[in-house]
Amino acid sequence: MSRKDSIRQRITADHAACMTILNRLAPEQWQQPVPSDEGAQWTAKDVLAHLAVSEGGHLGQITRCVAGEEPVPADFDLTRFNRRSVQKQAEKSVADMLKEIETAHAQIVAKLDGVAEADLDKAGRHARGDTITVEQFFIRCTEHRRTHAEQLQKAVGG
Fold first, then answer.
1. For 19-29, what is each residue's pLDDT tens digit?
2. pTM, whole model, 2 decimals?
3. b/e map of 37-76 (b: 16 or more CB within 10 Å)?
4. Which CATH number fits domain 3-156: 1.20.1200.10, 1.20.120.160, 2.40.50.100, 1.20.120.450?
């Protein structure tokens, strides 16, 4: 199995596990308060908004890293970005955000298909501040989403 096949298998499994959890949540569960990495008072829907935005953010970081550009600016404030992006998504429906995640996942897989094996070793600064390879960017993207989905499941009993 090639590296790309291995990555594809991993991100596909993470995506499926995450979407199974998210699609099981009942409408009233989306309004329940849940713990936030940001120290903000978030509901389950706010976490979903965070996930919908983060997919596109990861795709942008991957694209810039492959192009040899810095994935995020040196002064990037992840906490501020996350809080603001959740606020901007407040009026979107759960269904719309779930569709955004599905679309972004398809874009991530398409990006993986278009990346040369050698590009998987390129490295850049992730929004969290650590330096990782393009391969690790792909994994972190869906691993991040799966982790949040599992936390939601525990918090709201989904």
1. 999 999 999 99
2. 0.91
3. ebeeebbbbbbbbbbbbbbbbbbebbbebbeeeebbeeeb
4. 1.20.120.450
